[in-house]
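B., you asked whether I could sanity-check this one before it goes into the benchmark set. Here's the sequence:
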Amino acid sequence: MSDQNKPFVVTDRRKFTSDGTLRPDADPSPEREAREVPAAPSAPPPPLEFKSPHAVEPEPPAPPAPDFPAESELPPPPTASEMEQANAAYKQTADHLDTAVRAANPGMDHPPAMSFEQIVHSIYMTAILQLGGATKPGEQPRIDLLGARQSIDMLSILAEKTRGNLTPAESQLLDNALFEVRMGFLEVTQALARSAANRQPPPPGAPGASGRPTIVR
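And here's what the prediction gave me:
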């Protein structure tokens, strides 16, 4: 008989009848049902850290610059006795130094004592040198604008702190020094500004902007 003419056989695999009794032809062994038990969720693995062999460790932040201590944090001032002892020891050591220098250099004059005029002159000359005042003819001037500004500010502070405590000659010397270095500072900065403006290319459309000479007819 061919497979097409074979009758269909329906097998009833139910174990219980409609009224709930066990069927006589049912398999007495308990039914094994395969159930899929979902696995308990596990904690996600920690993320992996990939580090390039060429990675550069970031540098720790630089510590902040120390501030000047407030007046309440300053150490107590020295006593009058301590100041006198320190002054006497300083003068004695300075005299020994002068004697040794003159012994090594016969005929050398005694160095003049420091005065207010010498302090003003020293700061004044420093500012002039920083503005290129000692440049020889034909040489490129070496200008230190920031240093010159600090020297000028030093003279300004000196004038402010000594106001009302100077002789007319000292006051005139300080005023003249401040005027000259301030004017020299302005001249140098203006000259540098003009030089920088001359090096800039002319704007588009201006005469000579194409690089060719302009002919005026």
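One thing to flag: The two ends are 122 Å apart (CA to CA). Otherwise nothing jumped out at me.
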